[in-house]
Specification:
Two copies of one chain form a homodimer. With about 325 residues, chain A is α/β, with parallel strands linked by helices. Chain A folds into two domains: about 110 residues, Rossmann fold (3-Layer(aba) Sandwich); about 180 residues, NAD(P)-binding Rossmann-like Domain (Rossmann fold, 3-Layer(aba) Sandwich), CATH 3.40.50.720. In chain A, about 30% of the residues lie in helices and about 15% in strands. Chain A has ten helices and twelve strands. In chain A, the strands form two sheets. Chain A has a seven-stranded parallel beta sheet. A five-stranded parallel beta sheet of chain A has the order 2-1-3-4-5, with helices on one face.
C-alpha cells in the first residue's frame, strides 16, 4: 500500500524537507502529484486556488497547514463538513507587520514622506514639513492576536500608550485597557492612532466606516494592515478628503492590485503600500517552527498544538 | 542703577517669561534691546549671528544659553577669552532625532520609500520592493551623548543590537560595547547600520570618509543626523554610486540648503531630509526645563548645573 502524502504546495529548502521526513517517516513528502497520487494526500502545506476542487473532491485530506495568517480565502465550511483540520501561519509575519506599522507612523510624524516627495523635485523645504512626536501618543490596536501583541511590545518601547480592541473586550497582557469591538467608534474618539489588524470574517466586513472615522480626532491617523474589506474604502476616502482624520496608511485593499483608476492613488494624506507589510526575511525557518511542531503532534496523536483555526469563527 | 538684562533672542510664552522673572527678580527680561541697554545684557538666551558683534563688544555678557545641541556656530574662543559661560540645548531634540532615525531605517527596510515613489505614478509593485528586518541588526551609534543614549533605548526595544563609539571608548550604559573613535573604520566593518551623531569639531571633520565606507558591508546603511561636515560628502556619493554600501540617509549637509545642482538629489539609494530631525513638539517646555534649572543655580551661586559646554572641546 502507498504511503499517505504530505503535499507541499510551496518549495522548501532541503534541510526542512529532511526534517519533515524524519518526524513523519510513514509519510511520503511530495511537491508534485501524479494523477493517481491525489487520493493519498492527507496533509497539505499551503493552499492554492487551482488545486482546491481536486483536493476537496478526490483526496483523503485531513489537515491543511496554511502559510498565511488570514484564512478567509479557504473553503472553511467545506473543511468543517469533511472534518478537515486547518492551522494558519499566524505569528510568522508579526515582527514584519509591526515594523511596517511603526515605519508608516514615523514616515508621517517625522515628515519623511514629504521629504521623499520633495527630493524627487530637488526641493529643500523645512517650513512645509509636518512634524509630530510618536512617543506619548494614544494608540488603539483593533485585533489583539499575534500581530497586535507584537506591535504592542514594540510600540511601548517607543513610549506609546497602547489600548486594544477584541471581540469581547477580554484583557490581554501588554495593553493598558482592552474594549469590546462593539464600542469601536466610541473608543476611537480618544485615540491619536487607530490600527486595524482584523481577520476577514462576516463580523469585520466594513467595520471601519464613516461612523468610526467621524468619531475620530481631526489630527488622528488610521492604519490598516488586516484584511482589506474590513475598511469601507469609499467612506475612508471621503473622511480623508474632508479631513475628518489627518492621515491614513493602507497596506491592504478591497480590490488588489489597487486599480489604476482608484481615487485613492491621488489622495495627498494617504500612504499606499502594495500588501507588503507581511513580507518577512527568514520565512521558511519561521514557518517551520509552527508546522514541524504541529506535525510531531499530529503524527503522535492526531492533534494540532499550534495555530489551529476555529472553522466557524474563521480565525 | 539699571537691572542686568536677560536677553531672550527667541520669543517664549508668557508663562515662561513669568517663571524667569520669579526666579530672577533682580533681572530685567527683554526680547528687544534699546541702544543704551546693550551694556546691561548679562545673559543671552539663544544666539543670532546678526547680534554677535554687538554682544561680544558692548555688553556685559556672562552666560549664553544656546537653544541648539551643536554650538560650533558660536565664537567659542572669544567666550573662553572673556570667561563667558555657554550651555547648550542638548537633550531637547533627543526624542525627535531618535524617532527620525528609526523612521528613516524602517522607510528603507520596509520598502516604504519605494512605495511612496510608486504611488506618485500609480504603480502597484510588490516584486520590486526591497524588504528586510530591523530587529536583530547590529547598529553602531557614533556619538554616545544625550541623543545617542535615547536612540539606544528606543532601538533596543525594537530588538536591535546597539554598539557605541565615543572619543576614548569609555563604557556607556545601554550599549553592548563601546569603542574609541580611532577604531571607527574597523568597527564599522561588522555593522549593518552606522549612525553619525557627532558634534562639529576639528576632530570630527570628514570623519565619515571613503576609508570608513569601504570597510562597511555592501548591504549596510549609513545615517547622519550629527553635523554635516562630519561626512565627506563627495566620498559618500561615490560609495553610494559604486554600491559599496546599500543605502544612506542624510538630514544634515556640508552646505545647507543643499544646492539644487548637488549630485546627491538624484542618488536612488540616498534619502535626503532637510535638517528636520531635531524639530520637536513642545519645544518651549523642553527647553525651559534646562534653562530654568540653570538660571536658579546661576542666580544662587553663579554656576550652571545642566549642559555646560567645555569651550575648548566644543561640546
Amino acid at each position: 500500500m502507498q504511503k499517505p502524502i504530505i503535499y507541499l504546495q510551496k518549495a522548501f529548502r532541503k534541510e526542512f524537507v529532511t526534517k519533515i521526513q524524519e518526524i513523519a517517516p510513514n509519510y511520503q513528502v511530495s511537491t508534485e502529484l501524479a494523477d493517481d497520487e491525489l487520493n493519498n494526500v492527507e496533509i497539505s502545506v499551503g493552499w492554492k486556488q487551482e488545486k482546491e476542487l481536486q483536493l476537496l473532491n478526490h483526496s483523503n485530506l485531513k489537515w491543511v497547514q496554511a502559510v498565511s495568517a488570514g484564512v478567509d480565502y479557504l473553503p472553511l465550511s467545506e473543511f468543517e463538513k469533511k472534518g478537515i483540520f486547518l492551522s494558519n501561519g499566524s505569528g510568522i509575519h508579526s515582527l514584519s507587520i509591526s515594523e511596517h506599522v511603526i515605519g508608516t507612523l514615523l514616515t508621517y510624524y517625522r515628515g519623511i514622506g514629504q521629504a521623499i516627495k520633495n527630493q524627487a523635485v530637488k526641493k529643500w523645504d523645512q517650513t512645509g514639513i509636518h512634524y509630530d512626536q510618536l512617543s506619548g501618543k494614544n494608540l488603539l490596536i483593533v485585533g489583539t492576536g499575534h500581530i497586535g501583541k507584537q506591535l504592542s511590545v514594540s510600540l511601548r518601547g517607543l513610549g506609546v500608550n497602547v489600548y486594544g480592541i477584541n471581540t469581547t473586550g477580554h484583557p490581554v497582557s501588554g495593553f493598558i485597557e482592552t474594549y469590546s469591538i462593539k464600542n469601536l467608534a466610541k473608543i476611537a474618539e480618544g485615540m491619536d492612532i487607530v490600527v486595524g489588524i482584523l481577520p476577514g470574517t462576516e463580523a469585520t466586513y466594513h467595520i471601519f466606516n464613516s461612523d468610526v472615522f467621524s468619531h475620530m480626532k481631526p489630527d488622528a491617523v488610521f492604519i490598516n494592515v488586516g484584511r482589506g474589506d474590513s475598511v469601507h474604502t469609499k467612506e475612508l476616502a471621503t473622511a480623508l478628503k474632508e479631513q475628518q482624520i489627518a492621515f491614513a496608511a493602507l497596506d491592504v485593499f478591497e480590490e488588489e492590485p489597487l486599480p489604476v483608476d482608484s481615487e485613492l492613488w491621488e489622495l495627498e494624506n494617504l500612504l499606499i503600500t502594495p500588501h507588503i507589510s507581511g513580507m518577512t526575511v527568514d520565512f521558511q525557518r519561521k514557518f517551520m517552527t509552527i508546522f514541524l511542531k504541529n506535525l510531531k503532534s499530529y503524527v503522535a496523536d492526531g492533534k494540532l498544538v499550534e495555530n489551529q483555526v476555529e472553522l466557524r469563527r474563521g480565525y
